[in-house]
Design a protein that fits this description.
The complex is a heterodimer of chains A (134) and B (322). Chain A has 134 residues and is mainly α. Chain A is 90% helix and 0% strand. Chain A is rod-shaped. The chains are: A mainly alpha (134), B mainly alpha (322). At the A-B interface, helix 1 and helix 2 of A face helix 4, helix 9, strand 1 and strand 2 of B.
């Protein structure tokens, strides 16, 4: 016999599973610290790529003056200057991504908790069904 | 008001029922409009202007995620740039790379804003996108609005200075056109002003509409529009940017009006779509199609029947609208 209540519950859970669920369950596999740490490291990689592109564009833009002054300029100071900029930009970017991913983690945790609640209900329904069969 | 609510429910009902067809058609139309606009403005590669290719790309995008559409649109822009001059393509490609790195990291879901922004710029109502995204998106949605603004100005500026870039031969000429494109981007105060203003507007609208006060949506819309006009006007004066005062004021008013209409359809809209799910238990396989319930039904036609010649003994009945 079909159990309508069970079908409703399972449908709701299956539709969650298909959309947000996949991501949320993946997120739920991490501890909070690990998840945020991983995402911040990924942000650092992306940020570094973006910064490298900006530096490449800058160098190409100033190619003529850069080549002309190459032997005269203080390369250490130049590198130090750009490294400082890199670290400042990266720091701002990482702080933002820390907050974004901390928020996303807590949000998906909340959804997973609701999902677990539904799992419990489903388990209860199964037990009731089994008892009835016996 | 009730009539409007009924229309709203009917639209939702219609959308919920035919969502599986409507979404690809909408994606196709947005993509088609974007490609036509790109080709009309910077169509330097004649092969890409072929209607068959445009149609194929748009059709492809109707079935693929909208983010793929954005990447394809960016690719088309870079190819057009390549036909114009190689350095321009390099700069534009690298700028798109930076935008994608920023954008895909945080707001991959709001791809549509990136495509709609240049289209709304072309229609002279770019203010629509930040106001609307403030209502539907989160605080980070401002990134996609800024990306869309920059994408529009890249196209716009290359079109304006295409003559200086054509026929780039030799290293010197290549370097100079390279410089020209970067100058165009960095020294374009109008672009920076618009991008910053739209970011602020989107965040302000988002913050106010989340407030737990009555009419927060209307306050957000009004305040967002005023902030938008104020920043653009003050910015255009202090930064010496190319902004038309009348255009800003009327454009914002029209956009606010459009958002007001949109707002009616999205406000309190806990829209659940038709779901097709499959699962199984010990006894059955289930293939479920779950259709969302619609809360408000269209009222039945009112029939009030007063019939004096009823047979005696039978109680006279009045049918009212309830």
């Amino acid at each position: 016999m079909l159990n309508n209540e069970k079908i409703r519950l399972m449908t709701r859970m299956a539709s969650f599973d298909e959309v947000e669920g996949k991501r949320d369950i993946a997120v739920n596999g991490y501890f909070r610290g690990d998840y945020i740490c991983f995402q911040v490291v990924m942000s650092a990689i992306y940020g570094t790529i973006a910064f490298a592109v900006v530096v490449a564009l800058y160098l190409l833009y100033n190619l003529e003056s850069f080549l002309a002054d190459f032997y005269k300029m203080d390369l250490m100071a130049f590198a130090k200057d750009w490294l400082t900029r890199y670290f400042i930009v990266l720091l701002i970017y990482l702080v933002i991504s820390y907050f974004v991913y901390a928020f996303r983690f807590s949000r998906s945790k909340r959804r997973i908790r609701a999902y677990q609640q539904q799992l419990k209900q489903l388990h209860q329904i199964y037990e009731e069904e089994n008892e009835r069969r016996r | 008001m009730t009539n409007l609510l009924v229309i709203k429910e009917q639209i939702i009902k219609f959308y919920a029922r035919f969502e599986i067809y409507i979404t690809p058609v909408l994606k196709f139309l947005v993509m088609l409009a974007s490609l036509i606009a790109i080709n009309a403005n910077i169509g330097y590669m004649s092969r890409l202007k072929n209607p068959a290719i445009v149609l194929i790309i748009a059709l492809l995008c109707s079935f693929l995620p909208i983010n793929v559409g954005i990447i394809l649109a960016a690719f088309v822009i870079v190819l057009h740039m390549y036909a114009l001059s190689m350095p321009a393509a390099a700069v534009v490609g690298l700028v798109f790379l930076i935008l994608f790195v920023l954008y895909f990291r945080f707001t991959p879901k709001e791809a549509i804003a990136v495509l709609l922004m240049p289209l709304c710029f072309a229609l002279k109502i770019p203010y629509l996108v930040p106001l609307a995204i403030g209502f539907v998106g989160g605080p980070l949605s401002c990134i996609s609005v800024a990306c869309g603004t920059i994408a529009y100005y890249i196209i716009h500026n290359v079109k304006a200075s295409s003559e200086q870039m054509t026929g780039a031969e030799g290293v010197d000429k290549a370097l100079s056109s390279f410089k020209l494109v970067i100058d165009m981007l960095l020294k374009n105060k109008t672009m920076i002003l618009f991008a910053v203003t739209f970011c602020i507007t989107a965040v302000v609208v988002y913050l106010i509409r989340r407030l737990k006060v009555n009419y927060s949506w209307y306050i957000a819309l009004g305040f967002g529009s005023v902030i938008n006009i104020m920043i653009l006007l003050i910015g255009s004066m202090t930064m010496d940017a190319d902004v038309s005062v009348i255009g800003v004021i009327f454009g914002t008013i029209i956009s606010a009006g459009l958002v007001f209409v949109l707002q009616f359809f999205i406000h309190n809209l806990d829209y659940s779509r038709t779901e097709y799910v499959q699962f199984e238990d010990d006894d059955y396989y289930y293939y479920v199609k779950a259709i969302p319930k619609i809360t408000m039904e269209a009222p039945q036609n009112k029939v009030r029947r007063i019939n004096p010649q009823q047979p005696a003994g039978k109680r006279r009945e009045y049918y009212t609208d309830e």
